[in-house]
Amino acid sequence: MKLADSVALVTGANGGLGKAYVEALLNAGTNRIYAGARKLESLAEIVSRDPHRVIPIQLDITDAQLVNDAAVSYSDVTLLINNAGVALNYGGFVTNPDLKGARTEMEVNYFGTLMMCQAFAPILKQNGGGVIVNVLSILAQATSPVIGTYSAAKSAALALTKGVRAELVAQGTLVVAVMPGTIDTEMSKDYAGAKVSPVEVVQATLQAVTDGIEDIYPGEQATAIATQLLSDPKAIEKQMAALLPTAQA
Predict the structure, then answer these.
(1) Which of 136, 133, 137 minimizes the C-alpha distance to 116?
(2) Cα–Cα dist 101/86, whole Å
(3) I need a surface site. Which of 39, 102, 139, 180 has the fewest CB within 10 A?
(4) Could you report the per-residue pLDDT of 43-88, keeping only the tens digit for each?
């Protein structure tokens, strides 16, 4: 896809990574960018960068009516970036029995992404195929028990991504899975380990969109884990499990 010829919709555009996507799309010459967030006022800063090309839209991806209305109203979209996501439960599956948080993570990270794909797949088809980008996490492939239910929700979203990719290949839609390590945003402010910058994640994503690459692992952390998963997946499982005593101390 040529980004300069595209019309993009970015969910979660008010967050650190979402803003980075909008900025990069502006710099790439994208014709129009629909910036989605639950609260319109949270988009004021990013819209101010180019009010003619950045269009704010109120969009809660867990609200079926809002999702379907968006598909009707913004039927010129050729690039859908499913960036909206939440991480609420920090702890293990057993040691943190907060089902409310776990359900919300699944509603946003899995069901919300699913509804966006369902609503916009026909739009992309009528516009020549287009691209869907699902922003996931390396934890979709390597469960971290210290943030277990988030890992599970992202794993479900990865399964969704693979299935949607298979379904839409005939209509010429590229489906990209973005699986970074920990991203340096507000969501990860308390994480002391290595992080990947939002700019690096976005650059890798847009390069994949341009080059037609389906799976990417931005950042050294994600690249290392993805490589090791191919050769010794049990070692990764044990490394993740070893983090539990520190989390519980």
Answers:
(1) 133
(2) 10
(3) 39
(4) 999 999 999 999 999 999 999 999 999 999 999 999 999 999 999 9
Give the whole-angstrom CA distance, residue 159 versus residue 164.
Answer: 9
Write the pLDDT tens digit of every residue in 181-216.
989 876 766 665 678 999 999 999 999 999 999 999
Q: Could you tell me whether strands 174-178 and 131-135 are parallel, antiparallel, or unpaired per DSSP bridges?
A: parallel
For residue 176, give both structure tokens.
Answer: 């990209």
Q: Is 134 helix (H, G, I), strand (E, B) or coil?
A: strand
End-to-end CA, the chain: 49
CATH topology of domain 3-248: Rossmann fold (3.40.50)
Rounded Cα distance between 88 and 93, Å, is 13
pLDDT of residue 200: 97
Query: What single-letter amino acid sits at 204?
Result: A
For residue 56, the one-letter residue type is P
> Which sequence spans correspond to the domains of the chain?
3-248
